[in-house]
Amino acid sequence: MSQLMIDAIGGENAVRRLVEDFYDFVELLPEGETLRKLHLRGHGLAHVREEQFNFLSGFLGGRRYYQEKHGHMDLRRMHAHVPISAQDAEDWLTCMDRALEKNQLSGPQIDRLRTTFRRICMMLVNDLREWGLPAETPRVSRDGEKF
């Protein structure tokens, strides 16, 4: 019998800590700057902390809070309104790696989880030209700030 990833991590409380630590790194690390700005242009970091917990709970084999609330677990649909570059994906992965390390999560299952996160992040990279943005160049806000 194989163990659910949520159980291997330590249950819902551990997933909550992982998400909180992830977003703490988004708020603190230079790699989190663009992610932070993208979220602040949307519903904000408090909102996304809760929604990521809701999603990851179900994604890792636990209760599907996100699906119960929104009727789906489609990552592309969730991110369709956001321009995502390859660098944004790498930055997300850096912050998640730091959160996994802080929570002392390691081993073969976590290595597979990291691989899955990488595959998903790269799948979410979209054509920034569709957003009127040059591909893989810094974005500039209305007030001239690069992000």
Report on this model:
The structure is a single chain. 62% of the residues lie in helices and 0% in strands. The chain has helices at residues 5-9, 12-28, 33-41, 45-59, 65-70, 75-79, 86-102, 108-124. The protein has 8 helices and no strands. It starts with a helix and ends in a 23-residue tail after the last helix. It has a single domain (5-131), classed as Globins (Globin-like, Orthogonal Bundle). With 147 residues, the protein is mostly helical.
The Cα radius of gyration reads 16 Å
Ends: how far apart? 46 Å
Largest sheet: none
**What percentage of amino acids are in beta strands?**
under 5%
Q: Report the helical percentage.
A: 55-70%
The shape, in one word, is globular
Task: Indicate the structural class.
Answer: mainly alpha
Q: In CATH terms, what is the fold-level topology? A: Globin-like
Can you name the CATH architecture? Orthogonal Bundle
Average pLDDT score: 89
Tags for this entry?
single chain; mainly alpha; Globin-like
Layout of strands and helices, then pairs:
Layout: H1 5-9, H2 12-28, H3 33-41, H4 45-59, H5 65-70, H6 75-79, H7 86-102, H8 108-124
Give a brief outline of the structure.
The protein has 147 residues and is an all-alpha fold. It has one domain: Globins (Globin-like). The chain contains 8 helices and no strands.
